[in-house]
Amino acid sequence: MIDISVHEESVGTWVTIQGRIDGMTCSEIDRSLEGLVEQGRRTFIADLEGVDYVSSAGLRVFLSFQKRLKEVGGEILLFGLAEPVLQIFRLSGFDGLFRMASTREELEAEAAGEAAPSGEMQLEHAGVAFRYVTREAAVSTLRIIGNLDRLASSAYTADDVVRVPADDIRFGTGLATFGVSFDQYKDFFGEALILNRNLFFYPATKQPAVDFVLCPDEHTGLQYPFLHGFGFGGDFQAVTSFEGQDGPVDVQTLVEGLFRISKANILGVVFLAESLGFWGMNLKQVPTSDRRPEDGASIFDAGNFAAWMDFPVEPAASHHAIVGVGIAVRDKAAEPPPVAALFAKESRYHFHAGVLPKEPLSREIGRFEQELDRVLMGLEWSRVQHLLGQTRFSSGLAGIIELKG
After folding, report:
1. What is the rounded distance in angstroms from the CA atom of residue 230 to the CA atom of residue 339?
2. SS3 184
3. CATH code, residues 121-404
4. The CATH classification of domain 2-111, taken from the options 3.20.20.100, 2.40.50.140, 3.30.750.24, 3.40.50.300
5. 281's torsion region: left (phi>0), alpha (psi -120 to 50) or beta?
6. Is the Cα dihedral 143, 149, 153, 158 positive or negative?
7. Measuring CA to CA, which residue among 369, 258, 373, 278 is closest to residue 318?
8. How far apart are CA 295 and CA 301, in angstroms?
């Protein structure tokens, strides 16, 4: 038998375990820790004063979570190990992988951690806590790609393809694919996002799967075929963490908070977040002229919508990691018509998002670029979709690039 209790303290989430940790009980510890990680906990104190034995199966549970948490700036600290249990950790070589304490004084000294980054600021908006740092960086230019007007009528042809050099677009979204000739790739356009010049797209086919093209260096000569979209480059003027204090964070509230950090009218936004219900939509068919609806109506018309759009009826991917790229506007009326047209009638943002596995993400502002690289190279993408406003997050990180239209 094993008993597990949890409470919060200033040093972290205190998990008290009593009993024998072995192959019969370690799954219960695994479930408890997994649930806490999904709730956003990152620093744990495992109180093992009441544990008299830990088997290799139990050690593997602690090691697995330690590795996951270390990747996102968290960890498990071990407290109160009796000598027989401490000896098991030593014999396995695991004692060097965990910080340990036998008294409260030692624990508080170990858990003190690093100071907050220099210049870190805080604000609260509509129940969301933001911590952010600002950086010196120039304003960048928003690039509009292709012709969005042809989407609704499914009127794209080979002449509408814009081949965008990977060097020219650090971040972006749109309807894109990859290939050499139009005949080769025309059936594989789909919702796409570009992250650090790397292209991820979700072909509008019957059984889509995320495809991607990695661009590890500049000046590769790679070109991405777009039907429409937008992109931007430049460096982040601000990086922020965000976390819901009174409940989930909706997309609109997140955007409002970003506009309190920056005074620009247009923001390029890149974010990593943990989902509490993801809503996304994507095309089922490529909107080329040979697929134009027979009735001549828009693909968004009520009679055609179901055949053209994969639209959710309920949220998906709860507790999954989400990576998003897009733009937000403070005042659409202040922008020229081509820029204003990038936003839906009642919306001030336009994001595409990739859905990743259930994976804890770092909340450390200073690790933002490192987390982007980890997501890019280490996690499997299940889909890329147009992000809908019903999506909810528990917490995340976001980078802001101020733009001019």
Report:
1. 10
2. helix
3. 3.30.1330.80
4. 3.30.750.24
5. beta
6. negative
7. 278
8. 10
Token pair, residue 106, equals: 């030692």
Token look-up 């009127």 returns: 155
Q: Specify the amino acid at residue 226.
A: F
The residue behind tokens 């375990």 is 17
74-105 burial, b for 16+ CB within 10 Å, e for fewer?
A: bbbbbbbbeeebbebbeeeebeebbbbbeeee
Task: With 0.70 as the threshold, say if the pTM is over it.
Answer: yes
- Domains of the chain by residue range: 2-111, 121-404
Q: Which residue has the tokens 């991405």?
A: 224
Q: Is 216 exposed, middle or buried (0-12, 13-18, 19+ CB in 10 A)?
A: exposed
Q: List the structure tokens of 41.
A: 């906990």
Q: Which of 232, 233, 238 is nearest to 260 (CA)?
A: 238
Q: Encoding tokens for residue 159? A: 């002449």
Confidence of residue 267 (pLDDT cuts 50, 70, 90): very high
State pLDDT tens for residues 69-106: 988 888 999 999 999 898 888 888 888 889 998 888 88
